[in-house]
Amino acid sequence: MEDHKKALEGNSTARGVIKLSFSEKCFAVFNYTFFILMGLTTLLPFVNLIAKSLSSEGAVISGRVGLLPVGLQFDTYWYVLQDSLFLNSLKNSVLLTLVGTACSLTVTTLTAYPLSKYRLRGRKWLLLMFVFTMLFSGGLIPTYLLMQNLNLVNTFPVLFLPAMINVYNMLIIKNYFEGLPDSLEESAKLDGAGNIRILLSVILPLSLPVMATIGLFFAVAFWNDYFAAMIYITDPGLKPMQLYLKELLVSSSGDFLKDNIDAAINTTPQSIQASSILLATIPILLVYPFLQKYFVKGVLVGSVKG
Amino acid sequence: MRTTIEPQDASAASPTPGPHLNRKRGYWSRLGSDIWKEWDLYLLLVPGILVILLFKYTPMYGITIAFKDFNIFAGYADSPWVGWKHFAKLFTSPDFAQVFRNTVIISFLKIIILFPLPIIIALMLNELRNMLFKRTVQTVIYLPHFLSWVIVGGLFIDLLSTNGGIVNKVLVSLNMEPIAFFLDNSVFRSVLITSAGWKETGWSTIVYLAAFTMIDPMLYEAAKIDGAGRWKQLWHITLPGIAPIIILMFILRLGNVLEAGTEQILVMYNPVVYQVSDVIGTYVYRMGLGNQDYSFSTAVGLFEAVISFTLVIVGNAMSRKYLQRGIW
Questions:
Q1: Average of per-residue pLDDT values in chain A
Q2: B311: which of A2, A60, A79, B238 is 20 to 30 A away, CA to CA?
Q3: Which residues of B touch A199 (CB under 8 A)?
Q4: pTM score > 0.80 for this model?
Q5: Contacts of B56 in chain A (CB under 8 A)
Q6: So where does this one cross the membrane (chain A) (predicted)?
Q7: CA-based angle B167:B168:B173, to the nearest 5?
Q8: Is the ipTM here above 0.90?
Q9: What is the rounded distance in angstroms from the CA atom of residue B258 to the CA atom of residue B310?
Q10: Which of B2, B29, B44, B306 best probes binding to A when mutated, by most A CB atoms within 10 angstroms?
Q11: Angle value at C-alpha A84, between A78 and A88, nearest 5 degrees
């Protein structure tokens, strides 16, 4: 009876009740210690960065800043927040994330819906045509030359137009649609609704979780992307924040070369660098609770059925 | 590609034939009548198809410049054909040999060290009994995945810097020489591997954690009744249970073996460490967009694309043959 109860309570609690052997206890201690250390390794770089961003430049360079700020100051944040290049790049990133996510989610969903219908003729070939682009691509230079021919270099749309369909995300949405019962579509058809109407008012309202997941996938990808901008954008007014930050870091690592040769001259505004990095991280931290919830779900949907 | 675009005209031209009248009609005519009946369903495909035709398939035509001496003024059609010239250059160039070596070394180091790590950590996470602790750990270790390489690169440049970096501070306090991590050819690759591990290891556990939940709990109950300890359960139930996922992830990883982390390296490297960190992706970027050596860098890119494509296809075929499982 007792055993039966334990089994019903499920694996984890049942194991908790059973007495651990000595070796299992040792392992548990090791395991918890390991994860505490791993957690700290993940978090301490941020703590150090926060401390640096709030410390005086002198204290940063002389290496006196550990986990707490030395010579507390907030000027670096004011400096960064008043820098018109930073603000402009922030504006570009926000705009890119909003417009890019909206367009990509729309096109990707529109493509996924017909492909989720087995009655679609040529479905197999169409799927192959999409999946092939995941396995093989024309490469960086032909793509760049295409953008040049289309006069898209140094324009805002080049940052999201080619990304409007993401095959991996499309397959996740397609799988989700395939999992919905056919009866929904059939009964809406009897009421005289067309395919577009069915997608908009029957299927989409039932697909909010997957839409949220994929929408977040897109948003994070657009927010974090610097590569497309680095290739196509030279106009400083169009640069998104990640590219702005990258150039800030690279120019400072150039200085950091110089520093090694002549340690006396120090031009690297490390505290400014630190506060810029932190400001770019804040939006991700703000949506992180949602990210975690939906991303885990998304990965599960993708791995179970994909 | 043709299957979807041409028939629309066909259907517009011929009035709808009754679907049941003629069962032996050809594919195109059936497709035509399907489109006529459900034009709205096929219409939804148009934006997606246009995007991949324009932005994915047109550049594939652009690959031809790998076999030409591309001149931007002459354009694709009028640049002269040169056959395998750029590939001959590629195979004899000492630069490329170095770049190829770096790519393979960095990639293999990443696979050997960073591929098993998430599996081990997922197994260890699975052993945590305190759910609150487990969830907290997961929340923390997933976080770096969501940060861009620019941010992560910035964090590491800061941590490892020789003036004020906390790591060197520790080294000095232990009476050791400070290390210029970003300028030292003997340690820079370790910086790349470590930072890649820091960013992605936690997140990569998710797939395996999900795989654990698909193992039938009855197996564990039965094993316990038979007196199997935690180790035996791990060895005989958990590992075989997630083996298919491990193999799948490995095939996917293998296809990326020539992508040693271009976005990461572009943020973190500098001319001093080019000789150990310049990989195919970064080389194509510098030769193509920096030196405007379009044809040669397209040839390099094509070389990479063909090998990667072959690896995925072969890996998948082998997995299907020997393990009866594949990606498709």
A1: 83
A2: B238
A3: 44
A4: yes
A5: 133, 137-138
A6: 29-51, 93-113, 125-147, 159-177, 198-223, 272-291
A7: 100
A8: no
A9: 12
A10: B44
A11: 115
Tell me the chain A residues in contact with residue B72 when contact means C-beta distances shorter than 8 Å: 145
B19 contacts chain A (CB < 8 A): no
Interface A-B: count of C-beta contacts within 8 A: 295
Task: Tell me the shortest Cα–Cα distance from A284 to chain B, in angstroms.
Answer: 7
3-state secondary structure at position B81: strand
- Read off the tokens for B189: 């690759």
Residue B170 forms contact with A (CB below 8 Å): no
Contact state of A300 with B210 under an 8 Å Cβ cutoff: yes
Q: For chain A, which domains are there?
A: 20-71 (no CATH), 73-302 (1.10.3720.10)
Tokens 């359960």 belong to residue: B233
Q: Which residues contact A110 (CB under 8 A, 6 or more apart)?
A: B44, B45, B47, B48
- Interface touch A139/B63, C-beta < 8 Å: yes
For the four alpha carbons of A74, A78, A81 and A84, in that order, the dihedral sign comes to negative
**pLDDT digit string, tens, across residues A209-251:** 889 888 988 999 999 999 999 999 999 899 999 999 988 887 6
Structure-token pair, residue A59 = 């204290």
pLDDT(B210) > 70? yes
Which residue in A29, A61, A141, A144 has the most chain B C-beta atoms within 10 A of its own C-beta, making it the best mutation to test that interface?
A: A141
To the nearest whole Å, the CA of A162 is away from the closest chain B CA by 6
What is the Rg, in whole angstroms, of the alpha carbon atoms belonging to chain B?
27
Mean pLDDT of B266-283: 91
Q: How far apart are CA A276 and CA A241, in angstroms?
A: 10
Say whether B21 sits in a helix, a strand or coil: coil
What distance in Å separates the CA atoms of residue A237 and residue A231, rounded to the nearest whole number?
15
Residue A197 exposure: Cα atoms within 13 Å on the Cβ side: 10
* Amino acid found at A78: W
Q: What residue in B sits closest to A162 (Cα-Cα)?
A: B55
B148 Cβ under 8 Å from any chain A Cβ: yes
- Cβ separation B163–A266 shorter than 8 A: yes
The two tokens of residue A149 are 């021919």
- Helical segments of A225-269, H only: 227-232, 241-261
Contacts of B287 by beta carbon, 8 Å cutoff, 6+ apart = B293, B296, B297, B300
Reading the block at residue B299, the tokens are 């040839």
Which chain B residues touch A29 with a CB distance below 8 Å?
none
